[in-house]
Structure formats: structure tokens, C-alpha cells
Design goal:
Layout lengths: L1 H31 L8 H12 L1
Length: 53
């Protein structure tokens, strides 16, 4: 039970870190491309996924 809780905690930390990184990447893209403020969510997700590979 303790090991499961620890695993969940580690997963939560990873999710938070990924969320922060993706937010930072999206903010950077938004700043770098102000003419494309209305990008589709799919394009943002795809570009963020490329950043993690």
C-alpha cells in the first residue's frame, strides 16, 4: 500500500512538471508567433509533444 501511494506521488509530480513545461512551451510559442494567437489546440498539443521527444 505504501509503495502504491509513493508511485502515485511520483506520477503526480511528473504530471505537474509536464504541465508546467507544456505551459511554458505554449507561452513561448504564443510570444514568438503573435500573428498566430488563435492556433488550434491540436496544433499546440502536437508541437508540445514534439518538444518532449
Amino acid at each position: 500500500m505504501i509503495s502504491t501511494a509513493a508511485g502515485v506521488g511520483v506520477a503526480e509530480v511528473a504530471v505537474v512538471r509536464i504541465a508546467r513545461a507544456s505551459r511554458a512551451a505554449a507561452a513561448h510559442q504564443w510570444a514568438a508567433a503573435p500573428h498566430a494567437k488563435r492556433r488550434p489546440a491540436a496544433a499546440i498539443v502536437a508541437s508540445v509533444n514534439r518538444g518532449f521527444r
